[in-house]
Amino acid sequence: MAQAPPTNKPEIPMKPIRYLGLVLLVLTTALPALADRVRDDDKKNNADGFAPMFNGRDLTGWVNVNCAPGTFYVKNNEIITTGKPTGYLRTQKQYENFIAEFEWMHIPPSPGAVGNSGFFVWADPLPAVGAPYTRGIEVQVLVNLEYKNKKGQVTATSQGDLFSMGALPAV
Description:
By secondary structure, the protein is mainly beta. Helices cover 3% and strands 26% of the residues.
């Protein structure tokens, strides 16, 4: 795995799966996404062919699902969530055949608390009536959930695990 380029930011202890940066998911919220093609005119706006999903200023292009209006907000070029109530934020547009790259950080409410969240892909735009989340694939984003061996050494975390959510069959 490639190393992140050096930064001038103060070092904050983080789990090795990702670096400090864009806070997309904190506590018990989930970010769904992404299921139709990026339009050609979006690709033309970027020399590398990628269309950014977040403008760094506000939540233009995003839809709050099952949350109070202030649950998600933007501060210092980051999407931040209070985690209450549980719900998620999704893009207005849907994508397929994509490369999603994001940085995340949980700030647990107390030392050692587990932060549980996820990044949804190939998901329905809205959950079914009575369902808390949409049907799709969740890429798990956790902090402080560690599996230890008999010596107390951390042998694995569950960050990056894939889950089938809703009635979506896993193959």
